[in-house]
Amino acid sequence: MIDLVCKVVLLSCCSLDEEDARELRARFDPGSERHVQIVDHSFETTGDGGEQENIGIIEFRELITEGPVGLPEVEMIFVRRRFETRRGEQSSGWDSNGELRSAPPAVGKVFGATLGRSLVVELDDDGKLDLIFGMEEMVDAIREDAGSSGMVDFLITEFTEEEAARSLFTPRSVLFPGRRVQVGDTWQARHQTPPLQGSLSKVYSCKLTGWDEEKDSVLAQVEFTAKARPGSADDSLSIVQVESLHSQGVARLDVNRGVLVFLDEETEMAFAQEQQDGEVVQRQSRIRREIRVSLK
Looking at residues 163-168, what average pLDDT do you find? Predict the structure, then answer.
């Protein structure tokens, strides 16, 4: 993270005039295509005082078209899934590219059933998520392939409409201020975390630190911190009671195309988790999320 912050500072000293103000708004231009990779790497304390490492990777293509009423629609087509857990000398995982197959069969069946399938996000007049389609069909495909079990039911909670929208789509547009800004300007943004993460209102404090020229576009360099009030998730979906959450990171926003092209965020979270036997265990988690978006 320190190296990335240093790079942001250096990049702000480029040839662009730092006093220039530019419109910094998320855009969804029909006909455009994006490839999105989201990597989550976390370390979590366990009930016995140990530590568990979790790695998750999801990749999908986004095809943007004009919907029936003239507003943009975004089709998200899933192309790769990876899940890996390490604890001491033990590890378990699954990767759709075939290099990892040590997880319980249900994991591979659930994640594998999503590959090649798509969700369609419908946007409102302000370019914010309005509706999402295709979730029922995806869940039906998972159940047809993976059957029904406690593990399958738990994994399927990831594929609720709210969970998918909040974890995969919304976080990539929330950092845009939606107005003209210049170097040194600050703004706040708010993001409701997914139910499985505690359904918290996460507040970002953002600062534009510089402009960077890259090929045929201008990139905005943004530093941010974030925090959330303690609270619990919807009882029907929550698996944790979050007690504190703090984040910091950097992002690069493509000014011309209105797309987040890079994000590096580190989060520390304290939470209570109820075990299968009803016991509540206090835990700590450190999470690093990287998002990379390439434009076609």
Answer: 67
